Fold this protein.
Amino acid sequence: MFKRHVLRAAAMAAALLPAHSWATPLTFAQALDLAVQRSEAARSARAGASSAVEAARAAGQLPDPILRAGVDNLPISGVDRLSTRDSMTMKRIGIGQEWLSAEKRAARQAAAEAMVGREAASVQTTAAEVRLQTGLAYLDAYFAGEALKFTTRSEHHAREELEAARARLSSASGSSQEVLGLASALGVAEDESAEVRQQGDAARAALERWVGTPVDDLAIPTSLSAPQEQGYTASHPTVIAAQREVELARKEADLARTNRTPNWSWELSYGQRAGYPDMLSVGVSIPLTIAPAQRQDREVASKLALAEKAEAMLAEAMRMATGEYRALASDVKRLAERVERYRASVLVPTRQRTAAALASYSSNQVPLMTLFEARHAEVEAQRKLLSLQRDLAKAQAQLVLKPVQQEGRIQ
């Protein structure tokens, strides 16, 4: 918990700094915290939750009393027309109040609190989505930067060996075919670097959209520990949202049941007559539920149908989350196996090939193009391994960041 507060404090301080002011590489956790803090979607969700809380505080209250004032039995003809001198004319003032039972007020309060729960879940799910998108953008930007290192290395090899080939040609120990082949290879390497640089710029722009500041130096993302299936399913945003919808639908159904008992209203008024005794009036209004099967029962049935709909959506969301977890977990497992297999069966032999080609070239047993091809093959193998590692990291990030309130954090 202390570590989390330290990271958030650091992220908030960094957010106040101007662009290009990162003294150290931006970490994965800092990027996630920055994104949540500046997200307008998260702010919108928090405002919705605040609105629901305020509405819940008023839900269990009685309606406002009603002040009534008027004149009763005012003559409109005769000698006392529009006058209060007639014995039946009375100036009246009173107060009325609609009365809700404690059960109905409790039901309203429960429904409002269920709405608060739904909006609170929206805050969590929105933050989780922001973290997920930021994490994926971070990984794209980081691995694009690593890929550029490999293409730059390949470009350097091509340029270095082209210069050597030209020197050999000038000394009549090389061939123009070798020079042309290496010149073409240099052009291909430069184009690959340009392509990867373009991809990296796009990835950093996407990351900047979330963290709010240009970042060129990114720390290595580590500690991607995936949750278990049960925890992933229970914390999946769609499942949590569906659970809150079920709770709200059930509370609204309970509230609809209380409508079978009508709300009473009472009124107390004081009447004043000219030259005659004043009057006090007391009244009660009671709605008559003469056809509950056609009105109140249908309202209850409607709410119960909505509750059933929400329950079905919850069951479907849990199936979807379970399937999603198993697919991602399978991807993580297979990608991890491919990374290890590729490193052992492809990268190691290409390195050995490069070493052998360098030794053979040094002893003038193979042409310069053979050395370049070996080096290029090694760089391509490293790029392919990096691509697999990127896919593995993104699959792990989805397992870690998709659920809300995950325990494992990425550093």
About this structure: The first helix runs from residue 2 to 15. The chain is about 70% helix and 10% strand.
